[in-house]
Design goal:
Elements: H1 2-12, H2 33-38, H3 51-66, H4 69-84, H5 87-101, H6 105-120, H7 123-135, H8 138-149, H9 153-170
Length: 171
Amino acid sequence: MKHWVITICLVLGITTLGNGALAEPSSWQQLPAETRALLQNMAGQWDSLDPEQQKNLLAAVRRYQRLPPEQQQQLQARFQRWQELAPETREQLRQRFQTFRQLPPEQQQQIRDRYRWFQSLPTEEQQQLRAGWQSLSVDERQELRERLRGASLEQRREMRDRLKQRLRQRR
């Protein structure tokens, strides 16, 4: 199952992030046995990959191998969930990821910060916000997105509270 971790890196287009010097790509047979085991689903394609793809995969293998066992298991579980998604959903997520990667670094950081903030909320509050968002029409969602972009932290809190209140009224 470990080889799936590397595949998810490929699928999502994850590239090398500051890993210093990378080993030169080699033929499949020249790879260490452990690396071949992790990349076994690439065996038939390895020698035809371009050198940059090989470097990225080798870097992903090294990053994976440096993870503590618990994090390796978490990564495997995430990949299992990914595999269980419908192909259309996976493609939609790939496209969103590509769009994200094309954003300026400041916008990427804002999105990461908002995601961390959302994850820090109690589960019940996350569910309320999700339900509130789902209850909005397409136009209401777009309007809210635009207002949130220019809002301060305090204004965002107020909007979130109004959204939760609106949800309670619809029940």
